[in-house]
Amino acid sequence: MSDDVAIHVRGLRKAYGDTVAVAGLDLDVHRGEVFALLGPNGAGKTTTVEILEGYRHRDAGEVRVLGADPTEASPHWRARVGIVLQGTGEFDELTVAEVLHHFAGFYPDADDPDKVIARVGLAGKARARTHTLSGGQKRRLDVALGIIGRPELLFLDEPTTGFDPEARREFWDLIRDLSAAGTTIVLTTHYLDEAEALADRVGVIAGGRLVEVAPPNSLGDRQEALATVSWRTPEGTLESAQSATPTALVTELAARFGGEVPGLTVTRPTLEDVYLRMIGHQ
Ligand code: ATP
């Protein structure tokens, strides 16, 4: 395995009784990459990620994360891996600052807790008790706990669920900053715009297998897909045509209309379109 591979998985399998959650999954994540795992409910994302984090034992397969088998992980390995689980974020009577300072003590090279609090947008809540935080603020605290140890590799499980639109944008900026500083990031999400905004590559899991891995703009041969050109006829009805050469069609329409084409739109399949088609085939 070369040094630029952060995660290497071959033939991963995991069943819970009769339920096969992961059915022979292969995956490589490069160092410094932002990798998004997409997939419908029950596809096997959380099981896969928990195995990579060392929280779940696999039935079969080869798994290396930062060069080690997570089931045999040392404390040193744990300190290099940051994990943001779905909804911890509540520590009774402790304040945000107290929690962060406390957790910073667990890491050999922790970041400055006050800086991390500011980074996740909780500076105004540093002295608030964690049980008084809103849902979105608790998620920010989860993220702060995931990055306090300055991880080389950060796992984020549905990180922005419950965030308002502004908080999501701020969170995306934080992920971009972490990525620019060299952190490898693996996130699961149900938000396709989030995957598109953040990920270098997207992996689609369905039925416990990775069915495709590609940059978001080329998933499912999206770039080569036909464009749909729509316009309004002089009678006011909407017409549309699929075209591999939409510019030529628009030029022809412009000539036909003698200039401006009423109601003109040119679209290609969105990430959501190709994703739904892909999981529909499974
Ligand atoms: P979601 O998007 O809903 O979070 P997911 O892709 O993360 O789904 P998993 O949580 O990995 O999916 O679940 C995969 C399959 O394994 C599902 O059928 C689920 O019901 C089953 N499963 C997960 N955890 C357990 C468990 N502890 N015991 C039994 N079955 C489980």
Helical run tally: 9
Highest CATH level, the class of the domain at 1-80 and 151-167 and 182-215: Alpha Beta
Extended strand count: 12
Report the biggest beta sheet as strand number plus sense, adding barrel if it closes: 6 strands, mixed
Portion in strands: 25-35%
Low-confidence spans: none
Radius of gyration: 23 Å
Helix content bin: 25-40%
**Average pLDDT metric:** 91
Spell the H/E element sequence. Answer: EEEHEHEHHHEHEHEEEEHEH
CATH architecture call of the domain at 1-80 and 151-167 and 182-215: 3-Layer(aba) Sandwich
Might you state the CATH topology name of the domain at 1-80 and 151-167 and 182-215? Answer: Rossmann fold
Based on secondary structure, the structural category is: alpha/beta
Terminal-residue CA separation: 31 Å
Shape: globular
What report would you give on this structure?
Among the domains are: 1-80 and 151-167 and 182-215, Rossmann fold (3-Layer(aba) Sandwich), CATH 3.40.50.300; 221-278, no CATH class. Helix content is 32%, strand content 27%. It has nine helices and twelve strands. It has helices at residues 45-53, 75-80, 96-104, 113-119, 135-147, 165-180, 192-198, 246-257, 271-280; strands spanning 5-16, 19-30, 34-38, 60-65, 81-84, 153-157, 184-188, 201-206, 209-214, 227-232, 238-243, 265-267. The strands form three sheets. It has a six-stranded mixed β-sheet, sandwiched between helices. A three-stranded antiparallel β-sheet has the order 2-1-4, with helices on one face. A three-stranded antiparallel β-sheet has the order 11-10-12, with helices on one face. Helix 3 (96-104) packs across helix 4 (113-119). The two termini are 31 Å apart. The relative contact order is 0.14. The model has no long low-confidence stretch (mean pLDDT 91). Bound molecules: adenosine-5'-triphosphate. Residues 16, 19, 21, 39, 41-47 line the site of adenosine-5'-triphosphate.
